[in-house]
Amino acid sequence: MKMSYIKSIPGLDTNKKAQAKGDKMKIITNNQYRDILSAFELTESELKDFDYLNEGEGSFFRYKGRVYDLGEFLVTSCDELKDWDGFSADSFFSGIAIKFDDSCDAVKVALCLS
After folding, report:
1. DSSP characters for 10-48?
2. How many CB atoms lie within 10 A of CB 24?
């Protein structure tokens, strides 16, 4: 059930550079879960960022002043993220990892830096 939010790309490895150098990814989290929100729970201003979705579609969460669409997250084969359910890159060197709670009503969020 929890993977229904996240796309899977076979062979995707978001950490090839770090693995090649032997570097470790730094994963920073406060271990707090954030509620998963429907489109109806977002403000009109927040919804403007998701104009690619049909009205009422999508599942979201808020983190550090930003709203994230769970559809942006991918399953990864990166060893350092094996305990996480999804990853979305912010840049070449950073991204956000998520882990669903047991009921799939909330996500734990982590900042990932390489």
Report:
1. TT--TTHHHHHHT---EEE----EEE-EEGGGS-HHHHG
2. 11
Within 13 Å of residue 103, how many CA atoms lie on the same side as its CB? 6
Give the model confidence (pLDDT) of 46-95 as tens digits: 999 999 999 999 999 999 999 999 999 999 888 899 999 999 999 999 99
- φ/ψ of 48, rounded to 5, equals -60, -30
85 with 4: CB under 8 angstroms? no
Residue closest to 114 by CA, chosen among 88, 98, 100, 93:
93
- Paired with 94 in beta bridges are 113
Mean pLDDT, residues 42-48 taken together:
94
Q: Which pTM was predicted?
A: 0.78
